[in-house]
Structures are given as C-alpha cells and as structure tokens.
Design goal:
By secondary structure, the chain is mainly alpha-helical. It has four helices and no strands. It has a single domain, classed as 23S rRNA-intervening sequence (de novo design (two linked rop proteins), Up-down Bundle), CATH 1.20.1440. α1 runs antiparallel to α2 and α1 packs antiparallel against α4. The mean pLDDT is 92.
C-alpha cells in the first residue's frame, strides 16, 4: 500500500488526535501559572506531536517513512501519558478530566498500534 494514498485529514486517528489536542489545551489552562513553561508546555508539545507526526508521515514518500512517523506519534502518546500521570500526582487534573483524556488517548494509541501492525510493525531505531 502506498503511504501517500488519500489525505491525512481523512484518517480517523488524525481526527481523534486533533480532538485530543483541543481537549489537552482546554484542560491545561487550569494548571498553575508557574507551570506555564514546565508541565503545561511539555504536555501540549507531546499532544501536538501526535497528529503532526501522523500528518508528516502520511505525506512522506515511502511506507517505511510513514511507519517511522507512526512510531514517533505513538512515542509522543507515551510521553503524554507520563505528563498526565505527573499532573494527576500533583493534583492538577480533576478525575473527570483525567478519565476523559485517558480514554481518548488510549483510543488513539490503539489505532496507532493497529496501523503499525498493518503496515509492518514497529521499525527498529
């Protein structure tokens, strides 16, 4: 399969990733002001990397590149999981927000995992 067939905008995983970005931005507005350049920034960067890597990989010229960028999106999801756990431990997140974010992130991660398997699995780096 050619990694360039269709637009990344048509990918449900990209769409779900974009929804996750919006939700994370909304929730991190509640973080303390002194986290603006710390956990808030890191959390936002990791979530933005998910759909950005999906899009970039989709536009690359080869399936190998596509899978590599899917791997990077998946790794950014793991980074986001860690940032959310830190926020939970610091009591920056309300339980309802954490549940919603975790559910959405898990859905994106499952989709990325499925795509990686479909296109040849994880690439070795």
């Amino acid at each position: 399969m050619d990694a360039q067939n269709g637009s990344y905008r048509n990918l449900i995983v990209w769409q779900k990733g974009m929804e996750l970005v919006v939700t994370v931005y909304e929730v991190t507005k509640q973080y303390p002001d002194d986290e603006k350049y710390g956990l808030t920034s890191q959390t936002r960067r990791s979530v933005v990397s998910i759909p950005a890597n999906i899009a970039e990989g989709k536009r690359r010229g080869s399936l190998k590149d596509y899978v590599r960028f899917l791997n990077m999106a998946y790794a950014s999801g793991a980074e986001l999981e860690t940032h959310l756990e830190i926020a939970r431990r610091l009591k920056y997140l309300q339980a309802m927000d954490l549940d919603r974010l975790s559910e959405n992130l898990n859905e994106v991660m499952r989709m990325l995992n499925s795509m990686q398997r479909k296109f040849g699995g994880f690439t070795k780096q």
